[in-house]
Design goal:
transmembrane; MFS_trans_sf; disordered C terminus; transmembrane helix; 73% helix; MFS_dom; transport; Growth Hormone, Chain: A
Length: 553
């Protein structure tokens, strides 16, 4: 019996590992993938963002489909779609096919798989072993974060990034072969709220896509050459549209509840302050984590010109620190105060980012990232060690699958926005700095300055000194002018990265303001007389001593 439980756990943990592996592999291999597909870092940023966006927008719908089909069948269908997406990605000749295979098909498959994992853990493990099972499945995701940069770096350096996705197809086939050993959650009569599904996809998608396009269109004032809507950048209109549609989505769900029909999302869940506290912190963690894993590989692979394997090795301290903290804190301090642990993590992340920014200069070497990676990893791991138990323990077991869908929506939405926001700031700052630097450099002729002011204002690609030197060699620029442009670009890259890291640090520090809602006792602690929740005005130092029975199992 124990061996069967181990096999079931291995199947579910392997699936969680697979869902997390893609992004960490792609982050460390961005420069190589962009070159191989004939696109830019901005193009790969779009693919990363859309992958997590598809998952975020469809996760709740995927959970509802799992209720209708049965969790194991939904899990199997998701694996087939995911495997097909991995195969298409492995043979992708250009960015368009990569977007189809990775961002769309794999995202669709994951939206069926991830909510099913939560329900299948509950169905296959008794209550006394369920928390440990959830923890090990979550640890598998952390292992993917830890191993992804090294796997991606090694395979990309010695073979091709395509083999990673080909290997995923093999893993999918193996999981499907073992799936019969997993006890099913039978289907239940349910109906899909098609209107709610459409509203959630349009609302969340518009917000993230609007943020993603700000680097090319501008936030409010449109950039030169960019389209306009009523005199403003389309980005701000997309963001506003998305917020309005999300509001309409919530109104529609409330309407369904009032009229006795089945909603896509029960709004009452969002009245559970313990659940909302955990979800908001999950969102914050992943928006920061995505920003870090987008910007750090760019610093290593483009600025320092390390290959993919070296980039993965330099990120490894962050990954291992995350894994050790995520698994070690609950084991060493099982009754740790979740609020304090999360706050410590949110202090550690910006501290590591600031140390990194302080060491970034034109003469920096790869060793400058070692200590910052440890601090950032420990901080993210501290959050991972607490937030899963906070959200799951806030509702009865019967609602765990629905909470799993919400949790995965929050994490993937955070990852989408993190990549989009940090990438937007980085590329916008790079463009402004390059144009300004060329205009102010006395070595650059007036004719080149005039060209730069018109041709570069729409966007400057994030490329290495070698790539830029090779590109300039094919132009008519003389050697002194070309050298000056390369110098300006190098300085602008560092400034853009500092701005991007600064935004990430601010996001982590800002999340501290909302930690007052988190409980101050570990879930299941018999001495829990204070759940640590508060009203909407709580901040960093505010606690609420009122017990709230509906946030405990």
């Amino acid at each position: 019996m124990r061996s069967k439980a181990g096999m079931v756990l291995a199947v579910l943990a392997a699936s969680q590992f697979l869902m997390t592996l893609d992004s960490s592999v792609m982050n460390v291999s961005m420069a190589v993938v962009a070159k191989d597909l004939g696109t830019t870092i901005s193009g790969i940023q779009t693919a990363i963002t859309l992958y997590t966006l598809v998952m975020a927008t469809l996760m709740i719908t995927g959970g509802k489909l799992g209720t209708i089909l049965g969790r194991r069948r939904a899990f199997a269908v998701g694996l087939v779609v995911y495997g097909a997406g991995s195969f298409v990605t492995a043979i992708a000749p250009n960015l368009t096919v990569l977007l189809l295979g990775w961002s769309l098909l794999e995202g669709l498959g994951a939206s069926l798989i991830m909510p099913a994992i939560v329900a299948l853990v509950a169905a296959n493990f008794p209550a006394e072993r369920r928390a440990a099972a959830y923890g090990l499945v979550a640890a598998a995701g952390a292992m993917a974060v830890a191993a992804g940069p090294l796997i991606g770096g090694a395979v990309t350096t010695f073979a091709s990034w395509r083999y990673v996705f080909a290997g995923e197809v093999v893993i999918v086939v193996a999981i499907l072969a073992l799936l019969r050993r997993v006890a099913d959650v039978p289907p239940s009569p349910a109906r899909i709220d098609y209107v709610g599904s459409l509203l959630s996809v349009v609302g969340l998608g518009s917000v993230v896509y609007g943020v993603l396009r700000t680097s090319e269109w501008g936030w409010i004032v449109a950039k030169p050459g960019a389209p306009t809507i009523l005199g403003a950048s389309p980005s701000i209109w997309l963001i506003l549209l998305g917020l309005v549609v999300v509001f309409l989505f919530m109104r529609w769900e409330n309407h369904l509840v009032r009229t006795g029909r089945e909603p896509l999302l029960r709004p009452a869940l969002l009245g559970n302050r313990g659940l909302v506290a955990g979800l908001s912190m999950f969102f914050s963690q992943y928006i920061v984590q995505a920003g870090v894993f987008f910007a750090v590989p760019l610093f290593l692979s483009v600025v320092l010109e390390l290959d993919s394997l070296q980039t993965g090795l330099r990120i490894l301290p962050l990954s291992f620190a995350l894994l050790i903290a995520a698994g070690g804190i609950p084991k060493v301090w099982p009754r740790a105060n979740p609020r304090r642990v999360v706050r410590a993590g949110l202090f550690s992340v910006p501290a590591g980012i600031l140390v990194l920014v302080g060491g970034m200069d034109p003469g920096a070497n790869a060793g400058v990232v070692a200590v910052p990676m440890l601090l950032i990893g420990l901080g993210l791991g501290a959050l991972s060690s607490q937030l899963g138990s906070v959200t799951v323990s806030s509702v009865p077991d019967s609602e765990s699958a629905e909470v799993g869908g919400l949790q995965n929506t929050g994490t993937n939405l955070g990852a989408s926005l993190g990549t989009a926001l940090v990438g937007s700031v980085l590329l916008a700052t790079l463009t402004a700095s390059v144009v300004s630097g060329i205009q102010q450099n006395p070595t650059v002729p007036a004719s080149v300055k005039a060209q730069a002011s018109t041709q570069l204002v729409g966007g400057v690609p994030f490329i290495s000194d070698k790539q830029l030197t090779d590109a300039l060699a094919a132009t008519s620029l003389d050697a002194p002018t070309a050298a000056a442009v390369v110098e300006v670009n190098a300085a602008a890259r560092l400034e853009a990265l500092r701005e991007a890291f600064g935004v990430t640090a601010l996001l982590a520090a800002g999340a501290l303001l909302f930690t007052g809602r988190l409980p101050d006792r570990a879930p299941g602690d018999d001495g829990d007389g204070d759940d640590g929740e508060g009203d909407g005005g709580e901040g960093l130092g505010e606690e609420d001593d009122d017990a709230d029975a509906d946030v405990r199992v």
